[in-house]
Amino acid sequence: MRTLVLNAGYEPIAVVSDRRALVLVLGGKAAMLEADDTVPLRSTNEEFSRPRVILLKRYVRIPMARRMPVSRKGVLRRDDNSCAYCGRFANTIDHVQPRSRGGRDSWENLVACCLRCNNVKGDRTPEEMGWQLLRRPAAPVSHGWHVRGVDRESSEEWAPYLAA
């Protein structure tokens, strides 16, 4: 069984095992909002309801929650696998300002690029090539939250807590 963990502000932050959730509840760090009584958790002396949703009593600050880390897969997904220079299918990434000239690995400097454009551009800037970017690269827009392993559509029991 899996348990949804809500921060003190009711935003979802994690999915943990039902046993870990019960430890948080019994330790006074969380309150149980919903329980599943069909198959209880048993100790030698007691029976406990399985937590389905718990709420942390103190707010936990999540580092880097606002900014997604840069990755090749993320750049291709952001640009919808289309080349920033010609618009064809892209399967590589390119530094707009080449790394050899001080270009960094950042959302604002990386674009999806087809293999042909990437090889032709080489170690030059788009301005030196006389090329225009079809869209300006930027950090992807956050959709509020993301909990690994949880889809908003496939979690009916958590739907009231996952509403945007």
UniProtKB/TrEMBL annotation:
Record bears the keyword Hydrolase: yes
Q: Where is the HNH nuclease domain?
A: 70-119
Gene3D superfamilies from the UniProt entry: 1.10.30.50
Which CDD domains does the record match to this protein? HNHc (cd00085)
Superkingdom of origin: Bacteria
Q: Which InterPro entries match?
A: HNH (IPR002711), HNH_nuc (IPR003615), NA-targeting_endonuclease (IPR052892)
Q: Where are the transmembrane segments?
A: none
Q: What keywords are assigned to this protein?
A: Endonuclease, Hydrolase, Nuclease
Q: Which SMART domains match?
A: HNHc (SM00507)
Q: Which GO terms describe its molecular function?
A: endonuclease activity
Q: Which residues form a coiled coil?
A: none
Q: Which PANTHER family does the entry link to?
A: OS07G0170200 PROTEIN (PTHR33877:SF2), SLL1193 PROTEIN (PTHR33877)
What is the name attached to this protein's record?
HNH endonuclease
